[in-house]
């Protein structure tokens, strides 16, 4: 069995350093060969390119722009009336993805509009989401890029987020019907919303294009106290033949480096 591939989420890790370029350097120094990030759009693109090339670190995932965070946005792909803004954001994410040779973009669904009832607007939001994903898939396929959608739990993290379960996401992907549109499995969110991780991994592995990890409910290091046995989950992913990346998207309990014992142990055992 091939060992699993991990990438450092530099929006969550190495935040002791002020900018993403420094975090890429720190990730490389810690042994990571790949990184991911949410939004790099306030960073100097040429500097990111320079550091990526200097370190040889692969940038494996970025998110589409969130919209106006201060106004309550967290993505626009499923938000009615914001289609033009979504396409503008997609263009910006493509600019960064091309420059950084990044082959995955998380297309953020967004939140149910304020003062709207989820059940009332669900069909309209799904229709907008499917339309935007079809448009994005065609654009991304020309670039050799995979689009991803990620369910985010609405019990703890974000009560207003539209896409909140793997079952909902899978049904939407079926309606989109594009081979380069995949499911992003954040194990933290999946455990909170649905549990049943072994069965859900086995069921959805054909459409899973990326994985992210954190302990539940603390969202700290995978080996911190919590509900999940990551040694078991890593074995499950290995046995099932998962070959994509696993993003380390968690909040370090102390410094990032102090909390990397779990991955150093994995690398040592697998001789990666």
Radius of gyration: 18 Å
Strand content: 5-15%
Distance between the termini: 12 Å
Give the fraction of residues assigned to helices.
40-55%
Give a quick account of the main beta sheet: strands, pairing sense, barrel closure: 8 strands, parallel, barrel
Shape category: globular
Q: What multimeric state do the chains show?
A: single chain
Number of strands: 8
Q: Can you walk me through this structure?
A:
- With 272 residues, the chain is of the alpha/beta class.
- Helix content is 40%, strand content 14%.
- It has nine helices and eight strands.
- It has helices at 20-29, 45-55, 83-100, 118-141, 166-176, 187-193, 197-204, 230-240, 261-270; strands at residues 5-9, 34-36, 58-63, 104-106, 146-149, 181-186, 208-213, 245-248.
- An eight-stranded parallel β-barrel has the order 1-2-3-4-5-6-7-8, surrounded by five helices.
- α1 packs parallel to α2 (45-55).
- The chain is globular, with a radius of gyration of 18 Å.
- The mean pLDDT is 97.
């Amino acid at each position: 069995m091939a060992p699993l591939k991990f990438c450092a989420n530099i929006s969550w890790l190495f935040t002791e350093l002020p900018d993403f370029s420094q975090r890429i350097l720190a990730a490389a120094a810690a042994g990571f060969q790949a990184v991911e990030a949410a939004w790099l759009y306030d960073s100097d693109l040429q500097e990111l390119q320079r550091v990526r090339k200097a370190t040889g670190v692969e940038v494996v995932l970025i998110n589409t722009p969130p919209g106006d965070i201060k106004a309550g946005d967290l993505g626009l792909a499923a938000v009615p009336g914001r289609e033009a803004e979504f396409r503008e954001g997609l263009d910006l994410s493509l600019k960064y993805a091309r420059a950084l040779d990044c082959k995955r973009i998380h297309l953020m669904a967004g939140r149910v509009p304020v003062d709207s009832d989820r059940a009332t607007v669900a069909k309209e939001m799904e229709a907008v989401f499917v339309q935007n994903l079809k448009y994005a898939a065609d654009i991304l396929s020309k670039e050799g890029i995979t689009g991803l959608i990620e369910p985010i739990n609405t019990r703890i993290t974000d009560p207003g987020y539209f896409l909140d379960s793997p079952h909902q996401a899978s049904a939407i992907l079926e309606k989109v019907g594009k081979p380069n549109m995949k499911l992003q499995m954040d194990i933290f969110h999946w455990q909170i919303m649905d549990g049943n991780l072994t069965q859900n991994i086995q069921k959805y592995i054909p459409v899973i294009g990326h994985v992210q990890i954190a302990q539940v409910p603390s969202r700290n290091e995978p080996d911190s106290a919590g509900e999940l046995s990551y040694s078991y989950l890593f074995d499950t992913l290995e046995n099932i033949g998962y070959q994509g990346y696993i993003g380390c998207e968690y909040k370090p309990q102390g410094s990032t480096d102090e909390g990397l014992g779990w991955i150093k142990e994995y690398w040592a055992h697998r001789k990666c």
